[in-house]
Design a protein that fits this description.
The chain has helices at about 40-60, 95-110, 110-115, and strands spanning about 5, 15, 20-25, 65-75, 85-95. By secondary structure, the protein is of the alpha+beta class. The protein starts with a strand and ends in a 9-residue tail after the last helix.
C-alpha cells in the first residue's frame, strides 16, 4: 500500500510504503518545480523495474549467464482511447539464442505487466 500527502510547494507530493519514501511533482510548465518523479514516470518505472527484476530472477534460477538487463519503458498517450506502453529490454551476457528467447518470454510474464494487462477498475469509499 502506498500513502501520499501534499507538501507545502504546489503539487509536490511525498509518498511512502511505510519503509521507503520518495517525492513526486510535476514539471515547471504545469506549475510544479520538477522536484520529483512525475506520476506517469512512476508508472513507467514500476513496469521497467519489474521487467528487469523478473529477468534477473529467471536467469539466476536457471543458471543463465546474464550480466545485466536494461529496460526502457515509455508511455505513449497519443491515442486517447488506448494506453500504449512501449518496452525495450536489452540483455548482456554470453547468451545462446534459446536463453535469449527464454529471457524475453520471462519478461513478458512479469507481475506488473500481468496486472496492467487486466481490466482495471477503481473502488472509492462510499
Amino acid at each position: 500500500m502506498i500513502k501520499s500527502k501534499s507538501e507545502h510547494e504546489p503539487y509536490l507530493t511525498w509518498f511512502t510504503d511505510g519503509q521507503h519514501e520518495c517525492l513526486s511533482d510535476t514539471t515547471a510548465d504545469k506549475g510544479g518545480k520538477n522536484a520529483g518523479f512525475r506520476p506517469h514516470d512512476l508508472l513507467e518505472a514500476a513496469l521497467a523495474c519489474c521487467i528487469t527484476m523478473t529477468a534477473r530472477m529467471f536467469a539466476e534460477r536457471r543458471g543463465i549467464p546474464l550480466r545485466q538487463v536494461r529496460t526502457t519503458v515509455q508511455l505513449n498517450r497519443e491515442n486517447a482511447n488506448e494506453t500504449i506502453l512501449e518496452v525495450e529490454t536489452e540483455f548482456d551476457g554470453e547468451l545462446s539464442a534459446e536463453q535469449l528467447e527464454q529471457l524475453k518470454a520471462a519478461t513478458r510474464a512479469c507481475p506488473v505487466r500481468k496486472t496492467l494487462s487486466k481490466p482495471i477498475r477503481f473502488v472509492d469509499p462510499a
